[in-house]
Specification:
Elements lengths: L2 E2 L11 H9 L2 H20 L8 E4 L18 E10 L5 E5 L11 E4 L3 E3 L4 E9 L7 E12 L8 E10 L8 E6 L4 E7 L3 H9 L8 E9 L5 E8 L5 E4 L7 E10 L4 E9 L7 E6 L4 E5 L7 E6 L6 E6 L3 E4 L7 E9 L12 E4 L8 E2 L3 E2 L4 E5 L7 E6 L3 E7 L2 E6 L3 E10 L4 E10 L7 E4 L6 E6 L7 E6 L2 E6 L3 E5 L8 E10 L2 E2 L3 E6 L6 E4 L6 E6 L1 H9 L8 E8 L4 E11 L2 E4 L6 E8 L4 E8 L1
Parallel strand pairs: 25-31
Antiparallel strand pairs: 1-2, 2-3, 3-7, 4-6, 4-8, 5-7, 8-9, 10-11, 11-14, 12-13, 12-15, 15-16, 17-18, 18-21, 19-20, 19-22, 22-23, 24-26, 26-29, 27-30, 28-29, 30-31, 32-33, 33-36, 34-35, 34-37, 37-38, 37-39, 40-41, 41-44, 42-43, 42-45, 45-46
Helix pairs in contact: 1-2
Amino acid sequence: MDIRFVALKNKTGVPKSVTQSREKLKLPQMNKIYSIVLTTMLLFLMAPKVWAADFTVSISSTDGCSGYIQPLKSGASIQFQINVKNIWTGNCNVGINKNNMGIPAAWVAIDNNNQTITPQQSVNFLITLTIPANTSEGEYSMPLSFNAYDSSNYNHSFTYTTQVVTVDNSVPQLPTFSAIPSSGKIYVSGWSSYDAMSNTYTTKKPSSGISGIKSYTVTLKNPDNSVKETQTINATSNNYYTFQNLTGNVNYKVSVTATDIAGNTNAKEIVVATAPAAPTMSSSVQGFCNITLNWTASSGATSYKLYDATPSTPVLITTTTNPSYVVNGLTSATVYKFYVVAYNSSGLGSDAGNTLSVSTLTVPVPTISGSQSICSSGTMLTVTNVPSGCSLEWVPGPGLSLYSSSGSSATFKATDNVPSWIKATINSGCGVASYTYAVDAGKPKPGAISIDFDAPPSRFTASIDGMISATSYNWYLDGVLIRNTTSTLQVFNRQLDNCGHVYYVDVEMVNGCGTSELRHAEVSEDPCYYYMVYPNPAVSEISITQSPEITSLSLAATSPKPRNIKSIKIIDNNGITYMNKVYGKEIPNASLNISALKIGTYQIIINEGKGQESHSFIKN
């Protein structure tokens, strides 16, 4: 703070205003006024000179707190600087007048007092304030006055804000605080204290502390009084601290020491027992509907609370004195989460133990063993993997009836000859698993035969949809058993030189219940064509001649008979006749002019008298 002190400068002579007034007043009145003015001027001339407007003063350590010096206790000392700047036009020798400092004058030492300060120059006066031993506590005023002699030995004296020296010998109030323990931590918070003598200073200078207290020291001791950890925290900072990485079920000592601005201390210590160590869940035994949980016993624990942490908000399952528990009423094939909290006899709970994630057992899918042929006489099936404590249910499909069941086996009888199934379900009481076993009820009943002609080339393939219970298939061609096989398809050779030949294909299935009826199919070679129609497509004319292959076959016959054409008819796909030519004389070959026909597809019918042959051709 830079403060300029302003005072009136003394002048000599009678003011002009007084002289003028005397001329206008009567003599008695004039003499009375003159006497008053003269007396006033004499008193003013006799008063000391004050030149405060010529200097500025600042004390950085107290200007912000109304001149209050940091409180000290007896025997303590402090140093601070007083800065003085000369804003007069001449040099002055400036010094601090200790005689005006009151009681604290004897406690003050001034380094390099009486310094010459040139115009616009600033100098510092180092003040050492030492409180004598046994000084009574209280607030002591310390006025500041300065002498400033110029070259003519005139004193430009000035003063500054009176400083306040606080002597604080008393300890702060006993601190109060709370300490909340857990397994491995102690949370200390809410500490508070008060010091009456230092309180004014912290009020004036809030950054220095609160309620006269500068800082708090939080200390943690082991049971043997050895210091485990200590922390000093400013009173203006947070009033909480957590001691971590502690051992469970240990009687620690926690103390909070309050230190006031003068350095006086007062401490409070309490014994704080940490909670039992957090239990560790180490093993589990899973069932379909329950889980057996085990955890490590915590020293000092008298009970344990087991929680289900599967939902977002954990649910208390039970309170037990044993380090194990069977959790019932669960669902199979489901993941659950659990943790345990240990409690001592005072009801102090540990930190939550580790969260164990564990799943109940999954009900196995039934494995069914037995024949897939269910006969009318009865067939037994068995589920080979029914777990202990689980039940088994059987359901027959169409064409079947459940004859009897015992344990993991059941006997079924066929009531029809159809493809069917049998369903087995394992029930754990909290979950199920099923499997459907494909079977055939009764004797096999084959479906339709499919024939792929000329596949492979020069042969044809017959196939049938198999039945799961079939052990073999009997394939017949033209009434002759060709093969007994487990294959659902059979390849046959074709009679390529036997046009129009019809193949008779039959098959029967065999399973454990017997042999099926024959399933029949027919396929034939292309019919025999005696004539060739060419060119095809044609534009204006087509020719009809006997096929060379057929001619050679006829000539090779024992009694060859030539084939002759009696008439030729041309029709479209709608059966409309466009040409019908009858020959008066039978001829073996013929030619026809078709230029008048429209573009399209037509049928040409060749009549030999005893029979006729039809060919398709395209007119371009």
